Amino acid sequence: MESTRNKLIQLLADNSEQYISGQLLSEELEISRSAIWKHMKELEKDGYQIEGKSNKGYRIISYPDKLSENTIRWGLDTDWIGKSIVHKESTTSTQHIAHDEARNGASHGTIIIADEQTNGKGRMNRSWFSSKGKGMWLSMILRPRISPQQAPQLTLLTATVLADVLHAYCHVTPLIKWPNDILLNNKKTAGILTEMQAEQDIINYIVIGIGLNVNQSESELPEEIRHKATSLFIETEKEHSIKGLIQEILVAFEKAYDQFIKNGFPDVKRKWESYGFKIGEEITIKTLRDHFQATFLGIEEDGALRIKRMDGSTEKLYSAEIDWFDDNENHAII
Ligand code: BTN
């Protein structure tokens, strides 16, 4: 059913300048003309505007901006990502669905997307505010043939993809706050949550979840995060197409991922560091034993933070509380 619908959209899309007859559609899809008509009604429910003329046939006039498997797939120019898409109007968390799908054998590149999450998950067991139709709440299932130790590199890569797309598509100037928060004007607009199912040296699957605040106004963000969170709408004073952003991100992710698999981490590291928040600057670091000032030098192959102490010695840090804003409030995670 679903694939007939997609073929139908494809046929209409390929002929969008002209009408395509019900007879031809019925022959191509090997279904009756009344079945074609029913599909057209379903597409209209999805928000497609379709013109039907008795002697000519059908023609798509416009595509909806609302999210559905069809609308995301339409115009999505990728080789492997998003070939399978699960869309939910509302769900607890796209991460939950992604894990279920992955355990049931979902293919590399499967995408789970929701208009709303009722129990969105952030890093460190925090919750992620995911209001209906206002942001991109997306999880990707990947089955990379890399070692589990390399998995953090994929999170860093995802952050660079988001930064690239926001810069090119929304004309903003994003920075990446280690390890993977996307900041606009020092406030977080996107976060990434990577979860992995792996054995000793084999990854069964990885789920990369991306939350991107798109069209919330300031008053639509919960009060307790307003001082540290933002959205594209707040920063640009414009609404942005969530569907368009999803497509841009998937296309850019596929390209970056393929390059990473081919060429390894150095390009990702370079790109990440070009967006790195406070690189080359002094930051305040708190570990269990210590509290000190250091210069943030960059990131390591394993995603660790590289710093230089005041005595000139360099160190790798995996987890630390960092006072990024020098105001004694840890803004590291929303
Ligand atoms: C963070 O804490 O910065 C990570 C936030 C990740 C949120 C996304 S929204 C889509 C996916 N589903 C979830 O429940 N979480 C991730």
From TrEMBL:
Domain of life (superkingdom): Bacteria
Database matches in InterPro entries: aa-tRNA-synth_II/BPL/LPL (IPR045864), ArsR-like_HTH (IPR011991), Bifunct_BirA (IPR030855), Biotin_CoA_COase_ligase (IPR004408), BPL_C (IPR003142), BPL_LPL_catalytic (IPR004143), HTH_11 (IPR013196), WH-like_DNA-bd_sf (IPR036388)
SUPFAM superfamilies found in the cross-reference section: Class II aaRS and biotin synthetases, Winged helix' DNA-binding domain
Statement: the UniProt record of this protein carries the keyword Ribonucleoprotein: no
EC class of the enzyme, as a word: ligase
Reactions catalysed: biotin + L-lysyl-[protein] + ATP = N(6)-biotinyl-L-lysyl-[protein] + AMP + diphosphate + H(+)
BPL/LPL catalytic domain sequence ranges: 70-261
Gene Ontology terms: biological process: protein lipoylation; regulation of DNA-templated transcription
DNA bind region: 22-41
Classification via Gene3D superfamilies: Bira Bifunctional Protein, Domain 2, Winged helix-like DNA-binding domain superfamily/Winged helix DNA-binding domain
UniProt GO MF annotations: ATP binding; biotin--[biotin carboxyl-carrier protein] ligase activity; DNA binding; transferase activity
Listed GO CC annotations: cytoplasm
Keywords, in A-Z order: ATP-binding, Biotin, DNA-binding, Ligase, Nucleotide-binding, Repressor, Transcription, Transcription regulation
E.C. no: 6.3.4.15
Chain's role: Acts both as a biotin--[acetyl-CoA-carboxylase] ligase and a repressor.
Family that this chain belongs to: Belongs to the biotin--protein ligase family.
Full protein name: Bifunctional ligase/repressor BirA
Organism: Oceanobacillus arenosus
Chain's gene name: birA
